């Protein structure tokens, strides 16, 4: 819908390079991140005890993973819909999605915990007896929830994600050099099956890694629930990172107010989607009022968690819903970016609310919260460091994408 | 390709000019012209293009639309209407007086937000869309069947490849020559006047007939329904939704194969406490001091506990279906026999002397409200036999006396001294209302325990009222009563005197 052709800068233009000020942060972030992550997990484990330490680690892990797979979905859906507008910000998403590869390595502690019983209640010796679960039921549960099968499934999810991410990342990188249009065609052609594989893996990973923290509880919507947080936070991160890159000097002319406007629309939409899914999950369980289903929400409406639940409702949905509704907000990059950063914080609280009650130590107190925060900051810093290192060796925009011109000239009505 | 050039527009003397239009061949010249027109001070100008053009709003100086605010207002109205509707339909007829018609659904609170949200959401969306759609109509002055622009012979190409800029004659700056000059100066081609559409405003007859026909036809279903409501038919009812008309759900007294005992109506789950009965203990429900009874007559206490407790009722059901009804009673008798051999027979025989430790005090907190409730319940359930004043001469009794019913046992007079609280404790009175006595049936299933206690309190008040002296009345009320008494006596006296005078008059007249 554009009528103005915008000149595309040459591929080696400095606007497409990662600014040196950011590239220099890479190594300190990697080292600091590892230190904070290990220290935080260790502190959390020793200070609170029980399954809290590993739960802190899982919060940090899920926070980074949801961002990575949300970005992966973003990239897939752009190819699936042959979207033009998003080309200038797609590389940012690609850099985030490729982080599933280091995250696959970071899964090792979680895999080990399935054997040692330090994270999942079902892997703790005597869980069945303690909770008076009938043999017949526990036998069927154990068919799915046992360490070997759990780790095997996890490997499948990680392999699929890493495979898709690596393939799309490599394709996009190769196009940077050659500019072949056939690469885009190939990426588009495979995006349908890739989205299907992605959907299965994401749903089952949510069931296995997060929902199974409460082994006897089940919600068929849970996969979608984790996915909503994932896709919402990924859009927010894309918005935030694009803004930061522009502030540092990269892609100043490429990403315009129109792209922020579109990202803002999607953020607004996914805020509603998050509210819709989380409320639907709650209402169905609340209405049917079946004890084995309600206990998950019962835990989250007692012992201090009730306040967090209400807070999430207001701050994760109500406030940003009203805040990002207006077109005037979405068309001011710094405003919509502030909201994006805000949502990224709320996404962390959401994950804390999902994961931590199952550690059985209540809110965790100031110590627990700080320990978890250190964990999360550590892992995020580690991921950012790796991303910056990767970005320094490539470009921050897919410079030879056939739709780059369309994206540059993109305008909303 | 031969394209006939339309003739240029000419203005006849009697035609009114609607405005001036000019053609442009590309977007950029149109946008530039728009800006110039805006800067020249024209506010009533419009551009027509074959496709949406970015930035044309600002170029023309068109203000941002207020449509989003209309949508927001309509959406919020939807939210409000939906919430109020659901709250009122769920029994709250008066916001300030609480639930008027408490109707429990799925054991949820009467006003439970989660259940209301889907409907609220839907109505918000619906009204917001209506607001947007019809708000757009209103802002655009729709529906409008003809636009004067169509009178311009060249205007057809606006959907094809040509851009038009139009200056409205209603603009205060408009004068035809000046507008033409401006458009020509801006590079517009074929600068022409647009004539007011003076075609007939009369709606064609054919259209009217068609409209009338459609309206008539659409009323047929409604008329058919109306007719069916007042006519009889021998053919069976037509079921539009058979699965809703013949719901597989069970009625209260039906049987089912789903449960071993075959009952469709399920007993309460063990431990069920009815709404509002949380703090009703066994003493409250029986009128007996259960602790004392347990020490005097353990089997009877156990039986009462079994009768009142849901757990035992459920257990009893299972026993009934498996082994027969008498077993539990026999077992209890057996236990009693083991405990005290000589009195083995007496526990089965009716107790002659009443040694039951009845509650001597009403456990209900006595208040004017409780007494009013007791009076209301007494007047509903008790007065038909016992009479409004409790003297045992209610309507049923009078009728029974009139027809000389042979099996009738006259209801008790509440003012009989044997029913006073010193010989007939509150607990016993409560138990009588609960379980009945002689011909009187038990009212446990009709009157809630709390209301039965309120009736007991009211009966006590009735008893006092019929034998009361002035000393029983609070100080503050005495003067009032004395005054009323004096008034009544004066009236009686006057009536008697009048009658006497009348009699005397009649006598003298004779």
From TrEMBL, chain A:
Q: Does the keyword Membrane apply?
A: yes
Question: Where do transmembrane segments lie in this chain?
Answer: 21-43, 55-77, 98-122, 150-169, 195-218, 224-245, 266-285, 305-322, 334-355, 361-386
- Annotated keywords: Membrane, Transmembrane, Transmembrane helix
Segment forming the signal sequence:
none
Question: So which domain of life are we looking at?
Answer: Bacteria
Q: What is this protein called?
A: Putative membrane protein
- Organism listed in the record: Rhodopirellula europaea 6C
UniProtKB/TrEMBL annotation, chain B:
Give the transmembrane ranges: 66-89, 110-139, 207-226
Annotated Low complexity bias: 339-350
Sorted keywords for this record are:
Heme, Iron, Membrane, Metal-binding, Transmembrane, Transmembrane helix
Give the residue ranges for region: Disordered: 318-359
The protein's matches in Pfam families, at most eight in alphabetical order, are given as: ActD (PF11821), Cytochrome_CBB3 (PF13442)
Look up the domain of life of the source: Bacteria
Where the record annotates domain Cytochrome c, the positions are 369-463
Q: Where is the composition biased (Acidic residues)?
A: 318-338
What span is annotated as the signal peptide, if there is one? none
Q: Which GO terms describe its molecular function?
A: electron transfer activity; heme binding; metal ion binding
Q: What is the protein name stated in its UniProt record?
A: Putative membrane protein
From what organism does this protein derive? Rhodopirellula europaea 6C
List the taxonomic lineage.
Answer: Bacteria, Pseudomonadati, Planctomycetota, Planctomycetia, Pirellulales
């Amino acid at each position: 819908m554009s009528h103005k052709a915008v000149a595309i800068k040459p591929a080696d233009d400095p606007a497409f390079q990662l600014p040196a000020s950011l590239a220099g942060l890479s190594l300190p972030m990697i080292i600091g991140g590892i230190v904070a992550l290990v220290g935080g997990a260790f502190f959390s484990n020793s200070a609170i005890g029980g399954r809290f330490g590993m739960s802190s680690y899982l919060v940090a892990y899920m926070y980074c993973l949801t961002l990575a797979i949300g970005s992966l979905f973003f990239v897939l859906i752009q190819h699936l819909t042959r979207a033009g507008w998003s080309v200038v910000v797609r590389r940012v998403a690609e850099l985030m999605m490729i982080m599933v590869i280091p995250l696959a390595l970071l899964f090792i502690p979680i895999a080990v915990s399935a054997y040692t019983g330090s994270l999942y209640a079902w892997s703790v010796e005597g869980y069945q007896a303690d909770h008076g679960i009938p043999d017949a039921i526990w036998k069927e549960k154990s068919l799915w929830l046992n360490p070997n099968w759990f780790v095997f499934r996890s490997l499948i999810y990680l392999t699929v994600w890493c495979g898709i991410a690596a393939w799309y990342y490599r394709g996009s990188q190769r196009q940077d050099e050659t500019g072949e249009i056939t690469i885009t065609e190939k990426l588009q052609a495979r995006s349908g099956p890739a989205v299907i594989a992605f959907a299965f893996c994401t749903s089952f990973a949510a069931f296995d890694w997060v929902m199974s923290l409460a082994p006897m509880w089940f919600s068929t919507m849970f996969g979608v629930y984790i996915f909503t947080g994932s896709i919402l936070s990924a859009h927010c991160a894309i918005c935030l990172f694009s803004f930061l890159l522009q502030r540092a000097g990269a892609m100043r002319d490429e990403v315009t107010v129109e792209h922020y406007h579109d990202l803002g629309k999607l953020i607004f939409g996914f805020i509603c989607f998050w509210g819709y899914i989380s409320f639907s999950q709650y209402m169905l369980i609340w209405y049917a009022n079946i004890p084995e289903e309600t206990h998950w929400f019962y835990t989250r409406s007692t012992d201090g968690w009730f306040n967090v639940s209400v807070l999430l409702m207001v701050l994760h949905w109500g406030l940003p819903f009203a805040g990002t509704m207006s077109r005037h907000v979405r068309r001011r990059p710094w405003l919509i970016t502030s909201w994006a950063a805000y949502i990224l914080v709320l996404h962390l609280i959401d994950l804390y609310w999902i994961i931590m009650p199952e550690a059985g130590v209540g809110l965790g107190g100031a110590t627990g919260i700080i320990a978890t925060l250190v964990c999360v900051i550590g892992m995020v810093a580690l991921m950012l460091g790796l991303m910056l290192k990767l970005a320094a060796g490539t470009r921050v925009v897919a410079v030879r994408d056939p739709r780059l011109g369309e994206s540059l000239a993109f305008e909303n009505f | 390709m031969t394209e006939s050039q339309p003739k240029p527009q000419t203005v006849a003397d009697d035609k009114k000019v609607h405005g001036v239009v000019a053609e442009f061949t590309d977007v950029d010249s149109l946008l530039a012209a728009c800006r110039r027109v805006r800067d020249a001070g024209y506010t009533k100008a419009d551009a027509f293009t074959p496709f949406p053009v970015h930035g044309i709003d600002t170029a023309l100086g068109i203000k941002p639309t207020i449509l989003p605010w209309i949508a927001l207002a309509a959406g919020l109205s939807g939210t409000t209407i939906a919430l109020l509707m659901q709250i009122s339909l769920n029994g709250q007829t008066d916001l300030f007086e609480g639930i008027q018609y408490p109707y429990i659904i799925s054991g949820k609170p009467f006003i439970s937000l989660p259940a209301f949200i889907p409907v609220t959401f839907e109505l918000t969306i619906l009204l917001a869309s209506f607001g947007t759609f019809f708000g757009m109509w209103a802002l655009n002055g729709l529906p409008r069947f003809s636009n004067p622009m169509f009178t311009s012979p060249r205007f057809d190409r606006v959907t094809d490849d040509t851009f038009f800029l139009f200056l409205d004659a209603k603009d205060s700056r408009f004068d035809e020559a000046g507008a033409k000059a401006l458009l020509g100066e801006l590079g517009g081609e074929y600068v022409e006047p647009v004539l007011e559409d003076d075609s007939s405003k009369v709606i064609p007859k054919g259209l009217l007939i068609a409209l009338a026909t459609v309206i008539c036809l659409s009323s047929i279903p409604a008329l058919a329904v109306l007719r069916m409501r007042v006519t009889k038919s021998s053919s069976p009812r037509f079921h539009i939704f058979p699965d809703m008309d013949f719901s597989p759900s069970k009625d209260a007294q039906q049987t089912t194969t789903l449960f071993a005992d075959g009952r469709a109506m399920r007993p309460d789950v063990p431990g069920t406490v009815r709404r509002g009965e949380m703090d009703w203990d066994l003493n409250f429900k029986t009128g007996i001091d259960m602790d004392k009874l347990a020490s005097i007559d353990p089997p009877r206490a156990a039986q009462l506990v079994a009768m009142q407790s849901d757990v035992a009722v459920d257990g009893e059901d299972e026993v009934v279906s498996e082994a027969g009804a008498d077993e539990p009673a026999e077992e209890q008798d057996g236990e009693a026999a083991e405990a005290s051999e000589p009195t083995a027979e007496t526990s089965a025989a009716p107790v002659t002397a009443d040694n039951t430790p009845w509650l001597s005090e009403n456990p209900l907190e006595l208040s004017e409200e409780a007494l009013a409730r007791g009076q209301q319940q007494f007047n509903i359930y008790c007065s038909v036999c016992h009479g409004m004043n409790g003297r045992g001469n209610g309507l049923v009794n009078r009728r029974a006396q009139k027809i000389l019913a042979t099996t009738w046992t006259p209801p008790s007079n509440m003012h009989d001294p044997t029913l006073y609280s010193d010989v007939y404790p509150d607990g016993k009175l409560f138990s009588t209302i609960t379980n009945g006595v002689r011909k009187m049936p038990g009212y446990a299933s009709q009157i809630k325990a709390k209301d039965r206690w309120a009736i007991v309190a009211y009966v006590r008040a009735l008893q006092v009222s019929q034998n009361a002296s002035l000393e029983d009345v609070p100080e503050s009320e005495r003067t009032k009563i004395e005054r009323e008494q004096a008034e009544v006596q004066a009236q009686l006296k006057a009536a008697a005197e009048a009658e006497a005078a009348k009699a005397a008059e009649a006598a003298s007249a004779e």
